[in-house]
């Protein structure tokens, strides 16, 4: 990378990595949420299982999955480095600091929200990703596809798990509420003609994605879908 | 000085020097006028301390007109106190209530070491400016304004960036002690004008490198700096700096 100098090791370069990987993860969530929302068709999970089968077998998706993990790890690793640096930048804390007077609590709590999401992600990957990729889905549906929907139905009978998923979606919502617009600002996209659209899209995106995701365990638990 | 009717409890950070630990010390003040500025209230406190044979509180101040950027003070958890768009010298005691307890701390950042009490060393800002916040050509005398080939919008944006007085409130309030608002204002005031163009991409790289070397934190876009800036410097400047930085690193053929 001769010639690029300290492009990615400088403070702004590190933030570029946060912003780019953040936007990548935002795009991923649209795909993830869209396919999962197929359960709301309420056809016994047949359509959802077609989607899941495609995601599990298509090689472009599988390659994308590797990119996704790299992006996610880069986002986490970079956040850790930045957080440690930021703590060093203020070794003596204020006795009184009125943060709420000048900024939103969630913009100051991205590290905490992100850590909660990471803990959730470990649970979530163990619940579904490990099952579908490694230990195997036990049953098949009427179309002969692996019945991931049956796994989902079984997992979401546990009220504790449902509660954990719902709480995690609150973390996700607030993390995105700051992260969405913040990524654009970091990448330099602050423009009077677009700021309103970016802010608005960020708020709608965060709320819709989080509610859709949270609705899935709720709908399964209360038997609202078949 | 006119006496008033306000009784206050101050909790003031006292620290001998950067090598010793500091602590908040309580002081009672009586008969403070609501018309006094916050710094005049400190003058009263210091008179009392001197009369008692104690060391007065050391704090930065200069013009007391709100234009020099010298006064600092982190008051009740906010730089320059509770009012928007003012420096501490332009904050008046009428913004507080009789019987209030007011906590006063210095700017806290690794890059701003405490010199004594409420005074911190802000020369890190000078070194960031020295790294590139200038133009290397003589621009001559001021021309007739109508001869300047600079659109009004552009000139206004440059002027707004140039309003930065380098007080350090952005660093003080930022949860990461980041200097991005200051540095971006100093870059933007030149990047927006034709005279600043020849060194534009070299400047942004040098100044950002110096900012990092000084030990300021990283920006997380909370917007606290913009909210607390006494001169209303906009976050647009940070986005412009980031754009220029990306252009300098990935498009410009000049490397630093």
Describe this protein's structure:
- The complex is a heterodimer of chains A (226) and B (256).
- Chain A is mainly α.
- Chain A has one domain (11-89, 103-221): Fumarate reductase/succinate dehydrogenase, transmembrane subunit (3 helical TM bundles of succinate and fumarate reductases), CATH 1.20.1300.10.
- Chain A is built from seven helices and no strands.
- Chain A has helices at 11-36, 46-57, 59-88, 110-135, 148-155, 159-186, 195-221.
- In chain A, helix 6 (159-186) runs antiparallel to helix 7 (195-221).
- The longest helix of chain A is centred in the first third of the chain and has 30 residues, at 59-88.
- Chain A is globular.
- Chain B is of the alpha+beta class and 256 residues long.
- Chain B folds into two domains: 6-108, Ubiquitin-like (UB roll), CATH 3.10.20; 122-250, Orthogonal Bundle (Fumarate Reductase Iron-sulfur Protein, Chain B, domain 2).
- Helix content of chain B is 33%, strand content 13%.
- Chain B contains eight helices and seven strands, in the order ββαβββββααααααα.
- In chain B, the strands form two sheets. In chain B, strands 2-1-5-3-4 form a five-stranded mixed β-sheet.
- In chain B, a hairpin with an 8-residue loop joins strand 1 (6-14) and strand 2 (23-32).
- In chain B, helix 5 packs antiparallel against helix 6 and helix 6 (200-213) crosses helix 8 (236-250).
- The model of chain B has no long low-confidence stretch (mean pLDDT 95).
- Chains A and B meet through helix 1, helix 3 and helix 6 of A and helix 6, helix 7 and helix 8 of B.
């Amino acid at each position: 990378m001769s010639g690029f100098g300290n492009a990615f090791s400088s403070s702004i370069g590190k933030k570029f990595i946060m912003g780019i990987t953040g936007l990548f993860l935002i795009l991923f969530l649209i795909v993830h949420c869209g396919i999962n929302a197929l359960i709301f068709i309420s056809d016994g999970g047949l359509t959802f299982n077609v989607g899941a089968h495609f995601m599990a077998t298509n090689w472009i998706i599988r390659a994308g999955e590797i990119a996704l993990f790299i992006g996610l790890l880069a986002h986490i690793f970079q956040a850790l480095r930045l957080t440690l640096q930021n703590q060093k930048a203020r070794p003596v804390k204020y006795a009184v600091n009125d943060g709420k007077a000048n900024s939103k609590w969630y913009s100051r709590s991205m590290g905490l929200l992100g850590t909660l999401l990471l803990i959730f992600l470990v649970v979530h990957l163990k619940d579904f990703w490990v099952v579908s990729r490694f230990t195997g889905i036990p049953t098949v549906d009427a179309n002969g596809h692996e019945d991931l929907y049956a796994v989902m139905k079984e997992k979401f009978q546990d009220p504790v798990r449902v509660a954990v998923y719902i709480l995690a979606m609150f973390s996700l919502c607030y993390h995105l509420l700051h992260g969405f617009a913040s990524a654009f600002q970091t990448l330099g996209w602050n423009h009077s003609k677009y700021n309103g659209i970016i802010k608005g899209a960020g708020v709608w995106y965060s709320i819709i994605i989080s509610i859709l995701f949270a609705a899935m365990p709720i709908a399964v638990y209360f038997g609202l879908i078949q | 000085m006119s006496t008033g009717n306000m009784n206050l409890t101050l909790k003031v950070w006292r620290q001998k020097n950067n090598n010793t630990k500091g602590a908040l010390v309580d002081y009672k003040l009586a008969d403070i006028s609501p018309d006094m500025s916050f710094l005049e209230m400190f003058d009263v406190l210091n008179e009392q301390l001197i009369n008692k044979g104690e060391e007065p509180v050391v704090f930065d101040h200069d013009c007391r007109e709100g234009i020099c950027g010298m006064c600092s003070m982190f008051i009740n958890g906010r730089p320059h106190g509770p009012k928007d768009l003012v420096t501490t010298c332009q904050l008046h005691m009428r913004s507080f209530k009789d019987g209030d307890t007011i906590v006063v701390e210095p700017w806290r950042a690794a890059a701003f070491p405490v010199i004594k009490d409420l005074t911190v060393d802000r020369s890190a800002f000078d070194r960031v400016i020295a790294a590139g916040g200038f133009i290397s050509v003589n621009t001559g005398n001021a021309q007739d304004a109508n001869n300047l080939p600079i659109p009004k919008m552009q000139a206004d944006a440059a002027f707004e960036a140039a309003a930065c007085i380098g007080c350090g409130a952005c660093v003080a309030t930022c949860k990461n002690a980041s200097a991005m608002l200051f540095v971006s204002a100093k870059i933007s005031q030149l990047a927006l004008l034709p005279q600043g163009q020849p060194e534009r991409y070299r400047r942004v790289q040098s100044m950002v490198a110096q900012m990092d070397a000084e030990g300021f934190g990283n920006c997380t876009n909370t917007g606290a700096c913009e909210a607390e800036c006494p001169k209303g410097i906009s976050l647009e400047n940070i986005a412009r700096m980031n754009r220029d930085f990306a252009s300098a690193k990935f498009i410009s053929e000049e490397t630093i």
